[in-house]
Design brief:
Length: 273
């Protein structure tokens, strides 16, 4: 039997159509991405700044050849050091290296040009990534307990993942392609994550890469294993992965980045001189 009462079709009636001349509203687009903006340091005395400019040219040469190079900033006068710091600015990637001494790493606005600061450390490295970030990465800040981690109720898939991590970590070698496990696509429980945190431990290096949202990279105490987490602009976790590799690609400066940095460093020097 058909009911005599009929619901009106959707999309019709009062309020279903826009009011004439009413301004449309849109969902805001992602924003806040850091991009390179040309900046020239303020130089009052060109002669005092010359050592800094010479060092910038040497950095450009190192970036062009793509080989790792270090520059000791303690050799500069305060005036030249200020010019260099002004030229470097702050890029998208920062790192915290635990150890003695603890070192803070900040990428400059020139990709692949890294500033390192700590007790007795004041230098710049040019390369895909600072050497100490690789050397210290998996020194245990919190040890990896492996299968000895306490297994509470609710741990379901984590032991199988640990077996895969142990296998890939033990067999990984330089030049091999990264092995990625996408945790976002795998079934797991909160207890699985807690158990893996104990089983894999934590290394000495944490990295933050800022672009559209953030990418947070944590070295684990198991060699060559990293946790890479991507967040959107509202800080919601959108991709959670583990990578078995020397250093996650998202933290590296590519060869093209270094070549571009070499060009821009020379442009800055020419503009000042």
């Amino acid at each position: 039997m058909v009911s005599p009462f009929m619901m009106p079709p959707t999309g019709f009636g009062p309020g279903s159509q826009p009011v004439e001349d009413e301004e449309l509203t849109y969902t805001p687009l992602p924003s806040g991405m850091n991009t390179y903006a040309p900046h020239l340091p303020e130089v009052e005395d060109a002669a005092l700044a010359e050592p800094a400019l010479a060092m910038l040219m040497s950095m450009a040469d190192a970036a062009e050849h793509g080989t790792g190079a270090e520059f000791n900033l303690a050799t500069l006068s305060p005036a030249a050091r200020a010019v260099l710091a002004d030229a470097m600015g702050q890029g998208e990637v920062s790192m915290k290296l635990r150890g003695i001494p603890a070192i803070a790493v900040q990428e400059s606005v020139f990709a692949g040009v890294w500033m390192l600061a700590g007790a007795g450390v004041d230098r710049i490295e040019v390369g895909t990534v600072p050497a100490l970030a690789v050397a210290r990465a998996h020194l245990p800040h919190r040890p990896a307990l492996g299968s000895l981690a306490q297994r509470n109720p609710g741990v379901v898939n984590a032991p199988a993942l640990l077996a895969e991590f142990l296998d890939k970590s033990g067999s990984w070698g330089p030049g091999m392609a990264p092995h990625v496990i996408n945790l976002t696509l795998l079934p797991h429980t909160p207890e699985d994550l807690d158990w893996l945190a104990e089983a894999l431990g934590e290394g000495a290096v944490t990295i933050l890469s800022r672009g559209y949202g953030n990418c947070r990279i944590t070295a684990l105490a198991l060699p060559h294993v990293w946790r890479v987490q991507f967040y959107n602009s509202t800080d919601q976790l959108i991709l959670d992965t583990f990578e078995v590799t020397d250093m996650p690609e998202v933290a590296l400066a590519a060869a093209e980045d270094l070549a571009d940095s070499a060009k821009r460093l020379r442009e800055v020097v020419r503009a000042i001189r």
